[in-house]
Amino acid sequence: MAVEPDIALRIRTALGNYLKRDPKIIRPDHRLRDDLGLDSMATIELLYQIEEAFDLQIPDQDLQKLISVGDVIGYVEGRLRPSSPARATGRAAKRLPAKKKG
Amino acid sequence: MKNRVVITGLGVVSPIGIGVGQFWKAALEGRSGITAIRSFDPFPMETYRSRIAGQVADFNPSQYLEAVHAERVDRYAQFALTAVKEALADSGLRMEEETPHRVGVIVGACMGGMVMGEREITTLYRNQKPHRVHPNFIPVITLNSASGIVAVAHGAKGPNLTISTACSSSAHAIGQALTCIRTGQADVVITAGAEACITPLVFAGFCSIRALSTGFNNDPARASRPFDRARDGFVMGEGAGALILESLAHARRRKARVYAEVAGYAATSEAYHMVIPREDGADVAATMSLALRDAKLLPAQVDYINAHATSTPIGDAVEIRAIRRLFKTRAERVSVNATKSMVGHTLGAAGAIGAIVCALALDTGLVHPTVNYEDPDPDSALHGISAETRKRPLKVALLNAFGFGSNNAAVVLKKFVR
Lengths: 102, 418
Description:
The structure holds two protein chains of two kinds. Chain A is mainly alpha-helical. Helices cover 53% and strands 0% of the residues of chain A. In chain A, α1 packs across α4. Residues 85-102 of chain A have low confidence and may be disordered. Chain B contains 14 helices and 15 strands. By secondary structure, chain B is of the alpha/beta class. Helix content of chain B is 33%, strand content 20%. In chain B, strands 1, 2, 5, 6, 7, 8, 9, 10, 11, 14 and 15 form an eleven-stranded mixed sheet that branches. A two-stranded antiparallel sheet of chain B has the order 3-4. Chain B starts with a strand and ends with a strand. Chain A binds chain B through residues 20, 41, 44-45, 48, 51-52, 57, and chain B through 67, 131-132, 134-136, 139.
């Protein structure tokens, strides 16, 4: 998957800021929960910041796909360049938001 | 037989000091913590009728708290966490040696997480992007965020409650903690009151209700003047107080130092008016009387009253009327002071801070001054109110707290005798 170095860097920087860790040690294969220790609320807060940084709205049904740092990078890239090969990642985001539960 | 309940630890965050040592020293010196509000950006302070408050200056949560807890909650809950941390350390209670389900947390809070609350509401209406409301908004503004985070921080798995009765919230928190331990629901209750709502909207609301002092904007230290003829409204404050309450048996078992015994409590409603107290003071007198009865004490045995005394023209007069009504000739002999003369009215924290003062007064025999009590108002003056610190043998103290919603609380504390 083609990855925009700029997007990857910005996401790792956002993660580093959120986790108060050096972005350089955050790798794409790090899983948000199992490797970086983000609980579900922390993941939501991180994605909130990523939405802000990239002017995106991430629908609920896309959240479950975002397991690793690389997933987030690929997802954001796909959303920002809908015609790129990463389109598959971004496709779900184009659907209208599903009905909210609860 | 009901369990006896004692206070074994204290902690405070206040406009006159963070930490009990600093707070008590300042209180005995009669130092005012009331200062000008620097800004409610973007609104010029001139657009507010009142421009002063009892502010906790330079509070840096990272100095006291772990980020994992502090960053989850609003300023008021950070105050609660800080005060609780001090109180727990002071008590010598080691959570790792306690049964978690026997340690409860009861916190009083009036307005809750309004710093973030106001920011998010403002942003929503300005930017009109509902999807940009912060995910932490709901857990932060929910009124039990302080009691929740205190439990999380210390692993206290017993009853976890928040009492919200406006300005009497944390007096009721202490009363409910007493009840909780008396009835055997818990051995220990981490009890606190916390408030931090010197924010553009809340402050404007209190201005609008014409409850705040406006005549001393250029002389903040003189603005909070309970019982004085020139008083013209309360001064908003912020802060937190925490007290470790535990059963006497539990305190004895771990050889804890005891500040005072919590001996009685009463909760009443005047069922009268949402913000105005009944002028004759009958319900306030009844509340004090019920609390003394609960403590099996008579009015004649009371040595000291930490008055609610917010420095409003009506409120102070009603409280004094109630004291005269219940205590009769003893009213002139009982020591009375107003902690709010120095820290302002800390709303949800006021009862807890007042209870800390009661515990310290019983422990040391010192009654801190009521500052700015310069020209006693005949309507709200008593011989036992003084602008100087007084030393007296104290055995029984009474804490008063009254809240909007026609709500009254009184708590009786006793010098601890084995």
